[in-house]
Write a structure and sequence with these properties.
single chain, 271 residues, alpha/beta, Rossmann fold, seven-stranded mixed β-sheet, four-stranded antiparallel β-sheet, 36% helix, globular
Length: 271
């Protein structure tokens, strides 16, 4: 979900996630897994009036959403995201409301055309309560987009390190949303085989971070999980990995969406 902790520096490059600042120029870094997820979400989301994003983290998706909605509300319980929010353009910030709050405490008198919660549900103890709240906030025929870790067999030290409470199975997840009033529920296995290939380095990194994370509470791990993966990825990948270079691979991966091969799911549903 979120976090915005330490600054790291190396020769002539100051890194303050999620941006690489090189000689006064800011280069946005998008993790490969996010880019595969973004590809599937953007081509399925319907333009609307207002969106709600829960756990926006580094606001990687915000600009794309603003291209399809007039305005948006961003809810995150980690106050440190305000630093990342300040790096958005003034035009973007004028269309957005950032609310620092646990979603359980979030209240709104308005409804939303779409609600997006990427890599959030697996951190929530009361999944049913979360889905009830989301359902209440959606307008009729509004869209819900979730992304969650897939397949219980893929549970690893990485899940423990970032505060995951569970991984999901496709049929169970579809049934769970339908039981909470959602219709046209579609669960796709995105990014195969590429996100699966990236799984090994994530596990190796998690092993190295285990000692540090073991001293954190689950809440602290959750706050860190959206950003911690980037701290060690400060290499050429951060400069060449973008929506244009990943698009052909995403298109290839989409051929496998209906198969249950990936270790990540995207859920698209309507109220």
């Amino acid at each position: 979900m979120t976090g915005f902790r330490r600054d790291l520096s190396c020769t002539h490059i100051m890194i303050n996630h999620p941006f690489f600042i090189r000689e006064g120029q800011v280069v946005k870094y998008y993790p490969p897994r996010f880019l595969f997820r973004r590809f599937e979400l953007i081509r399925r989301i319907k333009p609307g009036r207002k969106f709600l994003e829960i756990g926006p983290g580094s606001f990687n998706l915000t600009g794309d959403l603003l291209n399809r909605f007039s305005s948006g509300v961003l809810v995150d319980f980690n106050e440190e995201v305000q630093e990342a929010f300040s790096l958005l353009s003034k035009a973007e910030r004028l269309k957005l409301s950032l609310v620092i709050s646990d979603f359980n405490s979030f209240r709104s008198t308005e409804s939303f055309s779409a609600i997006i919660a990427c890599e959030v549900l697996e951190h929530i103890e009361d999944e049913a309560g979360f889905l009830r709240s989301v359902h209440d906030l959606l307008e009729k025929q509004g869209q819900l987009f979730l992304s969650v870790p897939a397949r219980k067999k893929f549970w690893s030290i990485h899940d423990e390190g970032v505060g995951h409470l569970r991984r999901y199975e496709k049929k169970e997840l579809k049934k769970f949303l339908e039981e909470h009033g959602f219709t046209d529920v579609n669960v796709i296995s995105y990014g195969f085989p590429f996100v699966n290939i990236l799984r090994l380095p994530r596990i190796l990194l998690a092993g190295k971070q285990h000692a540090e994370n073991s001293r954190m509470t689950v809440e602290q791990q959750t706050k860190e999980s959206g950003l911690s993966q980037y701290r060690v990825m400060m290499n050429a990948l951060g400069l060449v990995c973008n929506k244009y270079t990943i698009a052909p691979l995403s298109l290839l991966a989409s051929l496998f969406n209906r198969y249950d091969f990936s270790n990540g799911y995207i859920v698209i549903a309507e109220k």
